[in-house]
Amino acid sequence: MKKEQLLIKKNLPHNFLAEQILLNCLITNSETIKLTFKLLPIKAFYFKNHQEIYRALIFMSKNQLPIDILSLTTFLQDNGLLKKIGGIKVLLEVINQVSNLIYLHDYIRLVKEKFLRRSIIQLGYKMVNTGYVTNISLEKLLNKLEIEMFNLTNEVKSQPTATSAQLLNNMFSELKEKFLNPKLPGVSSGFTDLDDLTQGFQKSDFIILAGRPSIGKTALSLNIALNIIKSSRLPILLFSLEMSKEQIMYRILSLETNINSTRLKNGKLYQNDWIKLTKIIKILSKLPFFIDDTAELSIQDIRLKIKTILLKQTKIGVVIIDYLQLMQSSEFKNKNRVQELSYITRSLKNLAREFNIPIIALSQLSRNVDNRIDQKPILSDLRESGSIEQDADLVLLLYRMKNTKVNQNEKSSILELIIAKHRNGPVGTIKLKFNENQTKFTTLDYE
To answer: What is the pTM of this model?
Structure first.
């Protein structure tokens, strides 16, 4: 068994020549050391003597020491490291390699790829060994492994630095495509006035929809979700931390059938209602609408479930989380709630970027708004953390202006949807009519 394990360890993925050439590039072009260190940790080098040389170069660079083969040899000798790396012959092998500064990122990529493959193998062994640990709860073990897997996946997906030429070339192609085929850049919300201001929900956007309790945040998010799924057929993933899957489906049925939600819940239906229900259920059953009502939801849970759906669906239109303040992180249990929420919002923004999809998180507003004469919400009313505003690309604040009872079957409210922050565009206000019996929103106008 020991011999077998030794064989596996001996044959871990590595690229000896790429490590030598990269070190040569760093010695002959010392200005590249800081950049390389940002992209490659010391342990990215497989061979111990290469790690020591890389560590010495980083130290010399940080301390602004001159770097060439002579000064590096002297530094290693003075610190008792020259013999440890295998002597002067190892340095001569490195310096005799031919490197080209133009291909620096390629050298880094080759070394990093082997490092990440070794990391995957090591994580695999760790998973096996973790299965034998019985004095720690299964939930904690799984959370820890998920975090490590999450970090490793982010490393794998990290993008190299792009040149201005590459960026401009891509932008020119994109502008040409937009000119020839004009269309909304982002995912349409189904509300024309909102789309006019936002240009749709953009890929990798983290969007906050905030308001006081019972104002219609969930209803509006369901309206948006159904508009997206019906117009684009893109899958929708809704995480409901407050309401059950069944409650969400009752709301959706009420919205789509125009049947009063109270009658729908208590089963007091007319003949025409059954005809509508049968027709709508057939339609909804074919839509890729996914609802998860896990009560204690973590970032790792969300990431895993997004990935699971992407394995089957290839694309997701939007992810909706209802709502932000009910999310938790095991790392911050019984600790500072503001720091915990900051971690959650930053992680959600990272998820939006990783999967290149818009994520909408519903959020509560502070009670302070109720104590003001002017109760129209502002950004500082976002509850528990300023990081919500900081991490969000788009902040929408929902505000009830007045109630209007039209007739016995319709109780309507006039609401304002305030675009309080828009990282890539204008702010403004949209007026919405909300039929509370059918949980349906329609646009009035915008300013």
So the answer is: 0.64
